[in-house]
Amino acid sequence: MMVGAIYHQISCNDMIYCIWVMNMASRYKFSEEQIKEIEQARKDNQDKRVKARLKALELRAKGADAREVSTATGFHASSVTRLVAKYRDKGIEAIAGNHYGGNRRNMSVSEEAAILAPFKERAEKGELVEISEIAKAYQAAVDHPVSNGQIYFVLHRHGWRKVMPRSKHPKKASEEEIAASKKLTPK
């Protein structure tokens, strides 16, 4: 009788929650094929950070709980759980894939060279070329604001260097005054 009374007191939301918790437990079961896939990916990979993630995933796949994996690998238990969820959603490539490569620039090197060409002609003639002018042309090409640091990286990539006229003190004496003072000093 007590069981029936407790059953009737549980609301609909609580039942859904209980079903959801039961599904969470079944979500962490790995097939033998998946375990072999993880082991093979771990053997093939050379990056130590990826190997550590795959080791954590492999331990979790073989039945260790998140806390045990955490102590064995150094990952936090919640990180292990997120790692498993990421594997479940996106597969082994989300764990073992290279997430860092590629051209992250706004445009290709040849497109950058095309933008820099008129400025290069002016610089070869001996004119001063300011970074602000190059930045305006670059920003017009990419349609969003770009910092001066980005422009300096582009210039460095194309072999430019900062050349500017030698600075002069504003109160420096003229050449005639310097020559006259040399004549007055005894030797």
Total helix count?
A: 11
Radius of gyration: 33 Å
Low confidence ranges = 1-10, 15-26
Mean pLDDT level: 82
* Main sheet specs: none
Overall outline = elongated
Descriptive key words:
187 residues; mainly alpha; 0% strand; elongated
Write structural notes for this entry:
The protein is an all-alpha fold. Among the domains are: 69 residues, no CATH class; 49 residues, no CATH class. Helix content is 67%, strand content 0%. It contains eleven helices and no strands.
Question: What is the structure about, briefly put?
Answer:
It contains 11 helices and no strands. By secondary structure, the protein is mainly α.
Write the layout of secondary structure elements.
Layout: H1 2-9, H2 12-27, H3 32-44, H4 48-61, H5 66-73, H6 77-90, H7 92-96, H8 109-124, H9 131-142, H10 148-157, H11 175-184
